[in-house]
Amino acid sequence: MNAAQMAAALKEKFGDAVLSTTEFRGEHTVQVAPTSLKLLLKYCRDEMNFDYLVDISSLDHMGEEPRFEMVYELYGYGHLHHLRVKAKVAETQAVPTVSDIWGTADWHEREVWDMMGIRFDGHPDLRRIL
Question: Radius of gyration (Cα) for the chain, nearest Å?
Answer without folding.
Answer: 14
